[in-house]
Design a protein that fits this description.
Blueprint: H1 12-19, E1 24-25, E2 27-33, E3 36-42, E4 46-49, E5 54-57, H2 66-71, E6 74-79, H3 85-93, E7 103-105, E8 111-113, E9 118-130, E10 133-145, E11 151-154, E12 157-160
Antiparallel strand pairs: 1-11, 2-3, 2-6, 4-5, 5-10, 6-9, 7-8, 9-10, 11-12
């Protein structure tokens, strides 16, 4: 079935379904607040530049966690392993799941989760308005990579990548 439509309030579900066809990795973004660490599951992560090393992610402005991330000078983006669906689901529901994971603060206080596939420790360099979301740009000050397969999100479901033979 093929369906063309103009995105708008009356076609919001169709627009979300069309966007959901694009498979993304799953990340958990963390930052330190005055009341402790906070985290959020996000699939809006993207590389932006190699020189300088920049990445971005886009939290919803309607999220109760948004002000914490918008004001964070340092944050970390963790790319999750294929077996970390429960952790990703927990941070999607609430931002204070740190008792369920091992973590330690980095030199700037940003919480660094253990057992991730990769992590990008960032300093916020820009915050841009983008409709009902914002674009947070971070300069990567440290990156770490581990072996393993990534957790993937597509069409509203978690899964893992299988290369074509």
């Amino acid at each position: 079935m093929t369906k063309s439509f103009v995105p708008g309030a009356e076609t919001a579900r169709e627009f979300r379904d069309a966007l959901g066809c694009f498979a993304t990795g799953v990340t958990i973004v963390t930052a330190q607040t005055e009341s402790g660490p906070i985290g959020m599951t996000a699939n809006s992560f993207s590389s932006l530049s190699l020189d300088p090393p920049l990445v971005l992610w886009s939290p919803a402005k309607t999220s109760m966690r948004f002000p914490h991330f918008a004001n964070a000078q340092h944050f970390a983006i963790h790319v999750m392993h294929a077996n970390q669906k429960p952790v990703a689901q927990a941070f999607a529901k609430q931002g204070d799941c740190f008792s369920q994971v091992e973590w330690a603060p980095n030199a700037h206080g940003a919480p660094i989760l253990q057992n991730y596939l990769s992590v990008f420790e960032c300093r916020q360099v820009a915050l841009h308005d983008a409709g009902d979301h914002a674009i947070i740009v971070g300069q990567v000050e440290n990156a770490t990579l581990r072996s393993g397969e990534p957790l993937v999100f597509v069409r509203g479901s978690f899964g893992q990548f299988s290369p074509l033979s």
